């Protein structure tokens, strides 16, 4: 009788996380706290039928910064999304360790890019002392290097190793469709690309860009020379419009998302599952008409583009790489179809259908 009434505890395994930390975790964690809601971009492909089954709660960034994706999940799983606990921001003082313990969490997943803040705030130490393991994953800081090991790590702790392997096969295949071609291109054929990070999020501000990481790295792997890498070796930095004008990039790529609901007044392009083509076109026209931009050759020749910002924090950034490659090298990638890749990913790994607009090109002003 004792055996029948005693809960079966998950086997403990030892893993190495993206911070290089050795951590003992449950093999098949059942009560997980996500340090960011956008980690669902990685959880859903591993647990497609029941992505919230083991999720206790999160930080509410998915709700705030990608409400389109949140509503896709909410429509499919209304009861699950309604019960999720908002534990606050683990990288600041408003994260409730007490609430994590009260909800009997058996794992907390944090973002590598915010490791220092999480340790400085004392969250990692407090959870460790309370016996709740913490692991770091990375889909933002160095996603092209860390997505595969991060998905392997999540596959192990979720006891979904086979599903993780399926995703990784898909990831490698779709990424190689770009990199295998780019390897054969000559250096002089690589256009100079300026990535404008979230143009319009702060109206009137220009500009923030990526160094040789994240979208900067996507550009390089897609066969471009990233402007940000020529001025900065770190993750991201502010640059002057005068510097961009002087560099005269061949191609400009901005990122956009539906930020207007949480931050009224933004003029960014609201790309995402609920984006409307006419609104996208209107916002794009506003971006290229900004002082200084309208005189750039890239704008005048129709080489100003926008792409979904949230690919920057997602294991599905290979879709962004494919689309960027088509913009940079249209002849070499004539047969590559990023939209088909995006749809195939949904069919295989997500519980809902694709919709909306995730990238667009501004009209030539010549």
Report what the structure shows.
- The chain is of the alpha/beta class.
- The protein is 40% helix and 15% strand.
- The chain is built from 17 helices and 14 strands.
- It has helices spanning 2-5, 40-46, 61-65, 67-76, 78-83, 97-102, 115-120, 123-129, 143-157, 161-182, 215-221, 227-231, 241-247, 277-288, 297-300, 317-328, 338-349, and strands at residues 12-16, 22-26, 32-34, 55-58, 85-86, 107-111, 134-137, 192-196, 208-210, 225-226, 236-238, 251-256, 304-308, 359-361.
- The strands form four sheets. Strands 5-4-3-6-7 form a five-stranded parallel sheet.
- A hairpin with a 5-residue loop joins β1 (12-16) and β2.
- α9 packs antiparallel against α10 and α16 packs antiparallel against α17.
Observed structural traits:
alpha/beta, single chain, five-stranded parallel sheet, 366 residues, disordered N terminus, five-stranded mixed sheet
Helices, strands, pairings?
Layout lengths: L1 H4 L6 E5 L5 E5 L5 E3 L5 H7 L8 E4 L2 H5 L1 H10 L1 H6 L1 E2 L10 H6 L4 E5 L3 H6 L2 H7 L4 E4 L5 H15 L3 H22 L9 E5 L11 E3 L4 H7 L3 E2 H5 L4 E3 L2 H7 L3 E6 L20 H12 L8 H4 L3 E5 L8 H12 L9 H12 L9 E3 L5
Parallel strand pairs: 3-4, 3-6, 4-5, 6-7, 8-10, 8-12, 12-13
Antiparallel strand pairs: 1-2, 9-11, 13-14
Helix pairs in contact: 9-10, 10-16, 16-17
Structural class: alpha/beta
Taking all Cα atoms into account, the compactness measure Rg is 21 Å
Question: What low-confidence regions span 5 or more consecutive residues with pLDDT below 50?
Answer: 1-8
Strand order of the largest sheet: 5-4-3-6-7
What's the total number of strands? 14
Distance between the termini: 81 Å
Mean pLDDT: 95
The best one-word shape is: globular
Approximately how much beta-strand content do the residues carry?
A: 15-25%
Number of helices: 17
Tell me roughly what share of residues is in helical segments.
Answer: 40-55%
Main sheet overview: 5 strands, parallel
């Amino acid at each position: 009788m004792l055996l029948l009434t005693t809960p079966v505890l998950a086997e403990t395994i030892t893993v190495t996380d993206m911070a290089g930390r050795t951590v003992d975790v449950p093999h098949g964690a059942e009560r997980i706290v996500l340090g960011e809601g956008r980690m669902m971009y990685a959880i859903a492909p591993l647990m497609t039928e029941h992505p919230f089954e083991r999720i206790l709660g999160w930080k509410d960034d998915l709700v705030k910064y990608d409400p389109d994706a949140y509503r896709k999940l909410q429509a499919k799983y209304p009861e699950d999304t309604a019960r999720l606990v908002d534990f606050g921001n683990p990288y600041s003082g408003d994260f409730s360790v007490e609430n994590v313990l009260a909800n009997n969490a058996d794992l907390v997943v944090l973002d590598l890019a915010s490791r220092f803040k999480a340790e400085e705030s004392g969250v990692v130490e407090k959870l460790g002392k309370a016996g709740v393991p913490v692991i770091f994953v990375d889909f933002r800081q160095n996603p092209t290097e860390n997505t595969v090991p991060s998905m392997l790590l999540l596959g192990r702790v979720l006891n979904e190793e086979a599903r993780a392997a399926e995703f990784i096969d898909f990831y490698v295949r779709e990424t190689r469709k770009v990199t295998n071609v780019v390897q054969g291109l000559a250096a002089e054929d690589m256009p100079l690309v300026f990535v404008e990070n979230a143009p319009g999020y702060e109206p009137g501000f220009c500009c923030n860009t990526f160094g040789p990481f994240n979208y900067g790295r996507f550009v390089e792997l897609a066969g471009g020379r990233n402007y940000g890498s020529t001025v900065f070796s770190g993750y991201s930095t502010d640059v002057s419009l005068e510097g961009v004008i002087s560099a005269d990039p061949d191609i400009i790529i901005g990122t956009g998302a539906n930020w207007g609901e949480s931050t009224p007044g933004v003029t960014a392009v609201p790309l995402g599952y609920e984006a409307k083509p006419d609104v996208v076109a209107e916002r794009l026209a506003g971006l290229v008409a900004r002082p200084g931009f309208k005189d750039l050759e890239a704008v005048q020749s129709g080489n100003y583009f926008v792409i979904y910002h949230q690919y920057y924090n997602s294991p599905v950034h290979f879709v962004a790489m494919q689309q960027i490659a088509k913009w940079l090298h249209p002849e070499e990638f004539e047969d590559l179809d990023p939209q088909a890749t995006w749809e195939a990913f949904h069919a295989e790994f997500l519980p809902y259908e694709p919709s909306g607009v995730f990238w667009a090109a501004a009209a030539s002003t010549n």
